[in-house]
Design brief:
With about 170 residues, this protein is mainly α. It has two domains: about 70 residues, Rna Polymerase Sigma Factor, Chain: A; about 80 residues, Winged helix-like DNA-binding domain superfamily/Winged helix DNA-binding domain (Arc Repressor Mutant, subunit A), CATH 1.10.10. The protein has eight helices and no strands. Helix 6 crosses helix 8. The N and C termini lie far apart (about 50 Å).
Length: about 170
């Protein structure tokens, strides 16, 4: 396949492929990266073998790029801490000789490293000691949003805490 044909396929499909990824990941930069990977793979493969339907082949590559992205994303995740595990971690830290001030020092150090929404909910929940319902009222969010964001924040803190220990 000639370079001009590849360029034409790119021009006609780049927007569609980008939207395909954007609606799946809801992140502009990730969608751009996945789109770029798709077209680089397509350009390399299309010169190596004969393809009857380049557009179908392109979408097949996009699907495989997305599946590879998901495998890498979920493979790296650590199981989330729930509230009881977080409180047990705090108690364990106290039993090892750390006082409550040390725990809040660690939290103060790690909280800025997690996303702002997660940081806000974790602070309200564990520093201000608000209930999920109180956080929902204060932020005008539903319970599912607060619980999910808290779980993600705890997971992020757990990753940071374990990376700090090692």
């Amino acid at each position: 396949m000639r370079q001009e044909e590849v360029a034409t396929i790119y021009q006609h499909n780049v927007e569609k492929i980008y939207r395909f990824f954007f609606y799946k990941v809801l992140d502009r930069e990730t969608a751009e990266d996945l789109t770029s990977t798709t077209f680089l793979t397509f350009a390399k493969k299309i010169t190596e073998e004969e393809v009857n339907s380049p557009q179908s082949y392109l979408y097949g590559i996009a699907k495989n790029v997305f599946l590879s992205f998901l495998k890498g994303k979920y493979k790296a995740q650590i199981e989330p801490l729930d509230n009881e595990e977080f409180e047990a971690l705090v108690e364990e830290t106290v039993e090892r000789g750390a006082d409550e001030k040390d725990i809040f020092d660690v939290l103060e150090e790690l909280l800025p490293k997690i996303p702002a929404k997660q940081r806000e909910i974790i602070s309200l929940r564990f520093v201000d000691k608000l209930t999920i319902e109180e956080i929902c009222t204060k932020l005008s969010k539903d319970k599912n949003y607060v619980s999910t964001t808290q779980r993600r924040g705890l997971r992020a803190l757990k990753r940071l805490l374990y990376s700090k220990r090692n």
